[in-house]
């Protein structure tokens, strides 16, 4: 390449080196940079052949660029040499200040390894520094910084002057390898940045497409959709609602943003709403419309986030289930109410009566009052007798111990019966058993159509004659039962008289006036009695009352 006695050659080489190093930074891609590195060896360093071996992610080295011989380029470009084989080569031969030279006298052992190579036969050198065709010279390229990671290896062959490089030639090759390593690192960085930018752009496009898809799915969903805040002072506040939800509730989107679902839910359903979990929660409740009415809806919640670490929001799907609920209520009403009169049927009557009874009888009177005073002053109520029964009652009538053999009645208000002989002011649950007098003759004379009309009118008169909260039920046939709570013995008797007088007036059916009478038996519900015992007691009293009245008072038709 040059001799130490020719400094002008060194200067020329330095100029060429400066030029080819400058070209390294003009390449646009990693592949262009690698080829520029190989071409620079030929153009600036005086070698006829140059090969750039690049470290792959798996550690092996691939021939990434070749310059100087088209046939050799076609032969080995793209071929891979294993990392162990390369490490063996970089540890053999002579260390030339970072370069690795393997003379032909040692390199014959490498002919069978898997590193891609080219070689030609040639005579032995005629003088000491003559280049042999099987000599090998490698310039490792390392990353900048303290890690010194191997990036690749530049292989060179056939110096143009036929001699091994001197000190200056070695330094020039080492300098070039260092600059090539920087250029390759920069090219990789640019390639990674370009790939990252392309990936980011694709992700942004996908995100925009996803957001647009979500927007369209949200806005044009046939059922209601809402997005609400999660956490903080504004937890639950509606941020966004779709057209379907606005139409369902009769409120514009701008107004909906003033509310949360807690503001819109029916007061009886607020507990259901609060118990509904944010993630995957479901609930059926009523939401208020603008006109003051309520609509049954099914809520389904899920949690969404803007980004991986961004704020979380509550996405709620609101489905109108008004028709289904109405149908369910109709079915439930049919199951618990009489089809003809619309009154609660026998099963519903028994359910309501059973809810007021417990297995434990409750006594009233002076003894119970004394027990209440004992309880108020912290003494065991009832003394030894009460302890023997294993049960006690609070002064307000609420059970605070479990009934032996039964269940707990922690919040049960005991139902008591007034004294039938002495009106001591005790109020209880009156059970009025009503049986119509003369109804069978109307059915026989005028047919079932007239009989049904009579039953409907009697049911209406009974319902009109009782208080809100009282129960009028039809047991079947011409038998009715009235449950009236909070009555004394005299109150119940007065109620029976009023209801009997309400039934007696003529009933007009198809232009014909018919009359029925009514017999009432008054029974009392009391804890310790079963439902059947209560109804049987009232029924028996009704028959006693019916037999005690003359037939003229029971005649109808």
Automatic annotation (TrEMBL):
For this entry, the protein name equals: Diguanylate cyclase
GGDEF domain residues: 427-557
Alphabetically list the UniProt keywords: Coiled coil
Q: Which organism is it from?
A: Streptomyces xanthochromogenes
PAS domain ranges (all copies): 210-269
Give the matching InterPro entries: Biofilm_reg_signaling, GAF, GAF-like_dom_sf, GGDEF_dom, Nucleotide_cyclase, PAS, PAS-assoc_C, PAS-like_dom_sf
Coiled-coil residue spans: 186-213
Q: Which residues form the PAC domain?
A: 281-333
Pfam families for the chain: GAF (PF01590), GGDEF (PF00990), PAS (PF00989)
């Amino acid at each position: 390449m040059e001799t130490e006695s020719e400094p002008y050659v060194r200067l020329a080489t330095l100029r060429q080196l400066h030029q080819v190093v400058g070209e390294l930074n003009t390449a646009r891609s990693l592949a262009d940079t690698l080829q520029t590195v190989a071409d620079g060896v030929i153009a600036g360093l005086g070698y006829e052949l140059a090969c750039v071996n690049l470290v792959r992610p798996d550690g092996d080295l691939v021939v990434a660029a070749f310059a100087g011989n088209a046939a050799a380029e076609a032969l080995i470009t793209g071929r891979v040499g294993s990392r162990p084989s390369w490490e063996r080569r970089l540890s053999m031969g002579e260390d030339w200040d970072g370069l690795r030279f393997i003379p032909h006298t040692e390199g014959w052992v490498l002919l069978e390894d898997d590193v891609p190579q080219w070689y030609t036969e040639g005579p032995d050198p005629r003088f000491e520094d003559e280049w042999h065709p099987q000599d090998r010279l490698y310039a490792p390229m390392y990353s900048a910084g303290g890690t010194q990671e191997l990036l690749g290896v530049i292989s060179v062959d056939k110096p143009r002057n036929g001699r091994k490089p001197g000190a200056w030639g070695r330094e020039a090759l080492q300098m070039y390898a260092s600059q090539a390593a920087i250029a390759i690192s920069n090219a990789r960085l640019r390639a990674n940045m370009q790939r990252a930018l392309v990936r980011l752009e694709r992700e942004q496009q996908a995100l925009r497409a996803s957001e647009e898809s979500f927007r369209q799915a949200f806005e044009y969903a046939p059922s209601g959709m809402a997005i609400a805040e999660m956490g903080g002072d504004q937890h639950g506040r509606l941020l966004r609602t779709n057209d379907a939800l606005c139409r369902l509730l009769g409120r514009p989107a701008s107004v909906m943003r003033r509310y949360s679902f807690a503001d819109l839910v029916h007061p009886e359903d607020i507990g259901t709403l609060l118990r509904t979990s944010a993630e995957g929660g479901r609930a059926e409740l009523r939401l208020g419309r603008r006109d003051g009415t309520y609509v049954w809806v099914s809520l389904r919640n899920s949690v969404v986030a803007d980004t991986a670490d961004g704020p979380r929001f509550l996405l709620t799907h609101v489905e109108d289930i008004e028709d289904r609920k109405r149908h369910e209520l109709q079915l439930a009403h049919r199951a618990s109410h009489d089809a003809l009169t619309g009154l609660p049927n026998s099963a519903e009557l028994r359910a309501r009566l059973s809810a007021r009874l417990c297995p434990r009888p409750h006594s009233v009177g002076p003894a119970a009052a004394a027990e209440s005073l004992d309880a108020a002053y912290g003494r065991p109520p009832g003394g030894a007798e009460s302890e023997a029964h294993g049960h006690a009652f609070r002064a307000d009538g609420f059970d605070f111990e479990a009934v032996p053999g039964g269940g707990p009645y922690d919040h049960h208000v005991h139902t008591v019966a007034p004294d039938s002989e002495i009106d001591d002011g005790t109020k209880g649950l009156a059970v009025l058993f009503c049986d119509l007098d003369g109804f069978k003759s109307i059915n026989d004379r005028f047919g079932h159509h007239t009989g049904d009309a009579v039953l409907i009118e009697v049911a209406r008169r009974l319902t009109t004659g009782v208080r809100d909260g009282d129960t009028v039920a039809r047991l079947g046939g011409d038998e009715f039962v009235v449950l009236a709570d909070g009555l004394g013995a005299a109150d119940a008797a007065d109620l029976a008289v009023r209801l009997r007088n309400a039934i007696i007036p003529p009933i007009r059916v198809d232009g014909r006036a018919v009359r029925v009478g009514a017999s009432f038996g008054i029974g009392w519900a009391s804890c310790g009695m079963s439902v059947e015992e209560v109804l049987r007691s009232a029924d028996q009293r009704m028959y006693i009352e019916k037999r005690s009245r003359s037939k003229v008072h029971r005649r109808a038709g």
